[in-house]
TrEMBL record:
PANTHER family with a match to the protein in the record: PROHIBITIN, PROHIBITIN 1
Any Pfam family the entry gives: Band_7
Location(s), subcellular: Membrane
InterPro entries noted in UniProt: Band_7, Band_7/SPFH_dom_sf, Prohibitin
Ranges of residues in domain Band: 25-189
Protein name in the entry: Prohibitin family protein
Classification of source organism: Bacteria, Pseudomonadati, Bacteroidota, Flavobacteriia, Flavobacteriales
UniProt cross-references to CDD domains, sorted A to Z: SPFH_prohibitin
Main location per the UniProt record: membrane
Amino acid sequence: MEKLPKIALPAIIATIVLVVILAKSAVTIDSGEAGVLFKTFGEGVVTSEPPMAEGFHIVAPWNKVYVYEVRQQELFEKMKVLSSNGLEIQIDASAWYEPVYKDLGNLHQSLGQNYLQRVIQPAIRSAARSVVGRYTPEQLYSSKRDAIQDEIYEETKKILEKQYVQLNEVLVRDVTLPNTIKDAIERKLKQEQESLEYEFRLVTAAKEAEKVIIEAEGKAESNRILSASLTDKILQDKGIDATMKLAESPNSKVIVIGSGDSGLPIILGNQ
């Protein structure tokens, strides 16, 4: 086997070294991620420049790149907190969050990659304890679930305001009370509902009775006015009118026999 030329060996070595350097220097940022550059012989964490975007990057082999997920993420928390009267309540909640993209370098410098455990979890737990402590179990069970959700979100957001983290939403998925308290509340609500239904029936019955009384009084007044206006002469005239109409009917065979009271005829027919 022939010996390699003297220039070939250094070229091969240089190529190998270059490949190793490139392999150590190449950084690929995946979709939904961003990188924070750390300059070992420079300023350390780079905060004066935007984060490294998605794609392929070449950095000096003595520098480091810390990759962060910058998409919205979800934290699911089961928390045991106390109500206003000291009863233990369990809340299942979710928080949607993401790092502030332009401040990724500051986030890395001040909190690091475990910022979720350092600030977000303590913030949402503190806010949940504060908010739930304002309400009774009855309020939490029936009417205030949406209210505590909004209040936990606002208080958590206030805590995270200067922590380079963006809180998008807090969702209270479930509020669990002790079984004894839950049963007592349900009985109370059922009794209140039954009481309301009973009161409604009483009001409806009273209105119906009032309506009947008014109708009866109106009818009585109408009869009184009618009776006062019906003189013997008017009754006699109406009787004559009715007799004439019966006599003119083609279906009536009229026989007049004498006369009735007040001089009115008596009419007999086949109808």
